[in-house]
Amino acid sequence: MNLWTPPKEWEGQEAYLIGGGPSLTGFDFSLLRGRNVIGCNDAFRLGPDIISYCIFGDPGWWQKNRHELEQWPGRLVTNAPTMLSWEVPRLHKMARERDGIHSGSTLGWNYSTGAAAINLAISLGAIQIYLLGYDLSNRDNVSHWHPWNTKTTQEYAFRRFLNGFLCVSRSLPPGVSVINVTDGSSRLPVFPRMSFLEFLETLKAVEKEEIAA
Known about the structure:
Layout: E1 14-18, E2 37-40, E3 53-56, H1 59-71, E4 75-78, E5 91-93, E6 95-97, E7 106-108, H2 113-123, E8 128-132, H3 155-171, E9 177-181, E10 193-194, H4 196-212
Parallel strand pairs: 1-2, 1-8, 2-3, 3-4, 4-5, 6-7, 8-9, 9-10
């Protein structure tokens, strides 16, 4: 079993994590082009010029989207235990722990791909992590910002996800900050919040710093 250990390629930098929540409907993802972006599940369809890594934890999702994923030229990461023995080109496989933040070749699952993505960002060295589309809620019975998953997420699943994020918040390493970017609809209470307008202003400030450097 050949497990992957993420390199510290984002050491001391920002990371942007794209979840599936409907608050991202209409969001201009091109604003994230060239940045450190982790896309959860179907976000890979935004393309490798925006998505640095696609992470998933459900083997069933892989089977459903296998053809597109095998053609996708970007980097894929999973900690699905049943996939560790599979031979899949370009798939970075990591061990799974149920709870917490882990290092090396192990990711904490914490009951959702979105939570595992936070661990991946930390393993890559990020210290400022922005969560987008981490709503833990439906909008008019719609659970996603995209059309590729039309299944409505049930309340019991949201409660399980919330328990996982509570565990993540208690396990964050010193010096790591996680910010929930939301339009106000997110039910995730454990991280500081930022509006989309504030987030856009933050992106502009980061660009100015990069140009000045």
